[in-house]
Amino acid sequence: MKPLKLYWNFARPFTLVPPMIGIFSGSLIGYGASRAPFQILHVALAVAAAGVLNAASNGVNQICDLENDRVNKPHRPLPSGQMTLTAAWVFVVLTYILALALVAFVNVQTFVIYFIAALSTLAYSVPPIRLKRHPVGSNLIIALIRGALLKVAGWAAVATVLTSIEPWYIGSIYFVFLLGATTTKDFADIEGDRAAGCITLPVKYGATWSARAISPAFIVPWLMLPLGLYLKILTGNPIGIIVLCVVMLLWGSYVIYLINADPHRLVTEGENHPAWHHMYLMMMVGRLGLAGAYLLSH
After folding, report:
1. Were 178 and a residue from 143, 148, 217, 258 both cysteine, which residue would form a disulfide, CB within 3.0 to 4.6 Å?
2. How far apart are CA 215 and CA 177, in angstroms?
3. Which run of H or of E encompasses 100?
4. Sign for the pseudo-dihedral over CA of 279, 285, 291, 297
5. How far apart are CA 46 and CA 154, in angstroms?
6. Long-range CB contact pairs, 133-141, < 8 A, 24+
7. Residue 177 and residue 222: Cα distance in Å, rounded?
8. Each residue of 76-116: pLDDT tens digit?
9. Is 262 helix (H, G, I), strand (E, B) or coil?
10. Given a cut of 70, is residue 298 above it in pLDDT?
């Protein structure tokens, strides 16, 4: 395989899109709420840095998951022998440096959030901390990085996040969603995770219990939208926010049905299971939909 294509596959490009959308939508929300000038260059740098940082995170995760992937995903560059560990580490170090360098040109608040996110990705994958080995710790750290901090960082690229609870409340909505929804990726990896000592929810409690346990995550975060309006925390267009709430509640209910109708399909089908795709789509629609509601209020 040609080197560029090999590194591209190692970066797992499909997973780079959601964090970039998360930052972009967060910046639109910050713009709509604060009326601050929308600095296109700053937003572009933050969006690009999100993709690069996620590539770095994917890389270090694959290095530390080599034992798991020999069972779960033997076709990936490292377990298949197409890439050496040295080459993988070079890629990881350079992408971490590049991501932080890009966001250093935005502002201090955004840089600090990205730095915390970078450290968190290392805590997730790298021993001795390796939170991936813990069923609660792994979900918490992913929800923090890819849920809460993304929205706050996107807002910070446009306006300060230190004078209002609003960006943090919005981040908490996506934190709650990913706290459960992120487990959909773990069902297909039970065999390899168990062998490598990564005790995910499906490994510890089985498919049926885990599917039921994560179901509230597809409903509760969207109920936080009208609650935020009631508490006068959210300042986006009320009609747009309520419409988004209804759409996401109906969608979430359908996903709950899919994952509980036959939980063992999540184990056998993995990333081909519809629920896994719905999780990604819900995340992106939820983010862009809320951004739209805030732009309507501008």
Report:
1. 143
2. 10
3. helix 85-104
4. negative
5. 7
6. 133/197, 133/198, 133/199, 134/199, 135/199, 135/200, 135/201, 135/203, 135/204, 135/205, 138/198, 138/200, 139/178, 139/179, 139/180, 139/182, 139/183, 139/201, 140/179
7. 8
8. 999 999 999 999 999 999 999 999 999 999 999 999 999 99
9. coil
10. no
DSSP string, 140-171: HHHHIIIIIHHHHHHHHTTS-SSS-SHHHHHH
For residue 255, what are its two tokens?
């996903």
Reading the block at residue 40, the tokens are: 């296109």
Cα-Cα-Cα-Cα dihedral sign, residues 108, 47, 123, 144: positive
pLDDT value, residue 52:
98
pLDDT at 279 > cutoff 90: no
Question: Quick one: 128 exposed, middle or buried, by C-beta within 10 A (0-12, 13-18, 19+)?
Answer: exposed
CA distance 37 to 239: 25
DSSP classification of residue 82: S
Question: Which residues, including other chains, have CB under 8 Å from residue 215's CB and lie 6 or more apart?
Answer: 180, 256, 259, 260
pTM here is 0.92
